[in-house]
Amino acid sequence: MSATELARSIPKAELHIHIEGSLEPELIFALAERNGVSLPYASVEALRAAYAFTDLQSFLDIYYAGASVLLQEGDFYDMAWAYFERARADNVVHAELFFDPQTHTARGVSMGIVMEGLSRACADAKQKLGVSASLILCFLRHLSEEDAFTTLEAALPYREHFIGVGLDSSELGHPPEKFERVFARCRDLGLKLVAHAGEEGPPEYMWQAIDLLKVQRIDHGIACLQDPLLVAELAHTRLPLTVCPLSNLKLCVVDDLRDHPLKKMLEAGLCVTVNSDDPAYFGGYMNANFVQTVEALNLSKEDVVALARNSFEAAFVDSEQRRRFMQMVSAAQTA
Ligand code: HPA
Ligand code: ZN
Question: N or C: which end of the chain has fewer CB within 10 A?
């Protein structure tokens, strides 16, 4: 079996997927029609043609516009269910989904509608597809910390529906330190903590995520190679980095997939994982990310196994579940 074939078939966890970033143009148009929302694009093709991004912000503007069609509980369910079917096809056996409640509550959609729709899809993913799934609530970092506190309060009646919190949206100018107090509160509540850092931002933002927010994983984190001390720290602690190669390419964080730092990060002993970020916008789901990265960086079968094992090492699951996932990887290796 080639490294590419192994990359497709190996069981894996996806830990960095914004569920609103899985909304395909066809579903955006179907939901717009169902809900009577008008879109500033004439057709699916016109919308897809607008997916030519120059940086993170140019993407976020379209991503938030796309999410405007989500109004009812069933919309959130349908979006997540479509993702789970694709994940299952890519041999994703465990997924931790980011969602951005502020994008929806700002439009008058209640927290309950968002939570109920997404968590019902997670329950069905487990029951009908055998994909275990959980939710991570992300605070939008371009908004204030006060707004994040309000969002947390609104989410607490649904505490059993999400396992942790994250930090996403426009990175530059919105350092992790801005959210130190709300993350401290989330830590007291026993929530898992993650944050986007080192996507467009500097290594300093990754240090802040570690030292001030006390995160258990960093999303992206590819800027770490600019800072040897940070690399040494990440290698020592095995703090996981959820890397998204096609996202980095589409948002011009790297110019060519052959220049992507993932292989160097693996060689440095970091707990790096492969993820799709916003697959409907960046040209591919998990296996597209895996396969294109394997081919661009000439990754070996051992590298593929390491990436799959890292995804389960980094997943927020109990030790028994982690052991079962690791056994699935071992079985796929020898198959
Ligand atoms: N970075 C920051 N915020 C995001 C992203 C991303 O890649 N995708 C969705 N929100
Ligand atoms: Zn992301």
Answer: C
